[in-house]
Design brief:
The chain is an all-alpha fold and 290 residues long. Helices cover 85% and strands 0% of the residues.
Length: 290
Amino acid sequence: MKYFNFAIVASFFCLWLDSLLSNNAQIIVGFILILTFGILHGANDLLLIKKIDINKEQISFQKTLLYYIIVVGLGSLLFWIIPWFALLLFIIVSGYHFGEQQWENLEKSSLFKVFEFTYGLFILMLLFIFHIEEVQEVIQNITSVLVPESYFIVGLAINIVALVALGIYYSTKLIEFKNRVLLETFYLIVFAVLFRVSSLIWGFAIYFIIWHSIPSIINQIKYLNGEFNKKNFWKYIKSAFVYWLISLIGIAILYLLFKDVKIFNALFFSFLAAITFPHVLVIYILFKKK
């Protein structure tokens, strides 16, 4: 709870910065945040896999690394062969991942994952609906398909109906959920304000870093080392550094090959999606084992 109080203050501080920074400056700072804390929060997946120790069998580092590379490679290949399907899958997976992170401290059944997906997808839909033209452009650059504006509106409407219906259902089934409904609704209002006022990249960066990546890093450090403190934070940074650096090198190569901003933005989100797929799987298993 203390962190989320900080997150609210930090979010509105970033909104204040929005009035001081030009659109180009927001994009630059937004990308810097995503490339640091954003990429970093998924850079320790191999260490988490080793800690989780699936099926109680010791998996060699080489084999674990190979599996990880295969999943990232398949994600990248999917964007190359069937980009529209890969992007849709990325949105679905990210929606679930965001909702899972937001509700991770709640004791719940397996069916609650449907609500987590609906909640996380709603956050993404809020971002999309306030920046339809920019999102349409990114999607078109990735898939060569122009998604009509009406699709976003209908999608958001269906999402809202599902979210409200599931929210009412779980309010009658889970006491802890009922106690958190007002607070989580307030968070959604905060997200709506952030996305409405900010540019696409700046709004996404604020949510992705402050509300998702940093809480995820804190949880990972607690899982790996028992508690979150300065010493364990630097230990986390050191263990993630090599994989984080490799990711940055990959993005740098993309930028050098495709300096056109529109193409780079599309490739950047495709790359982000490719490394997201194995990360989401790792975090899903982590939450299941806790």
